[in-house]
Amino acid sequence: MPLEAAAALWDAERAARLVTEFVSGNTFEDYESNALLRSAVERQFEVLGEALNRVKRYDERLASQVPDLAKVVAFRNVIAHGYDVLDNRRVWDYATNFVGDLGARLQDLLSEAAD
Q1: How far apart are alpha carbons 53 and 68 in whole angstroms?
Q2: What phi, psi does 29 have (nearest 5°)?
Q3: Which residues of the chain have pLDDT under 70?
Q4: What does the alpha-carbon distance between residue 111 and residue 115 come to, in Å, rounded to a whole number?
Q5: Are 18 and 44 in contact (CB under 8 A)?
Q6: Which of 28, 32, 47, 56 is positioned for an S-S bond with 15, CB 3.0–4.6 A?
Q7: What share of the chain is helix, strand, coil (3-state, %, to 5)?
Q8: For the chain, which residues make up each domain, given as ranges?
Q9: How many helices (H) and strands (E) does the chain have?
């Protein structure tokens, strides 16, 4: 794995872990009413999507092992460029129902690379 791809994969895994950490113990109502929490989660989704986009650029084989990579990159673009129409429920659903599994897969890929 190229060094650049490994670094981007590490960034993506960290961002996924932070999203999970930020939403843990919160409800959707907490999320919706807390601008700081929303901003933190949205920022980590931006990092996650951009980092996975870089993984794809640096190592197509590695990128093919990341589930829904294109979906994550597209979601990053919605957050970055469609902030005015962003649906808080959609962000919350991704944060609570999708990112945990993705983060676990990214951690597995990092572990495999270290072997």
Answers
A1: 12
A2: -65, -40
A3: 115
A4: 7
A5: yes
A6: 47
A7: 85, 0, 15
A8: 3-114
A9: 7, 0
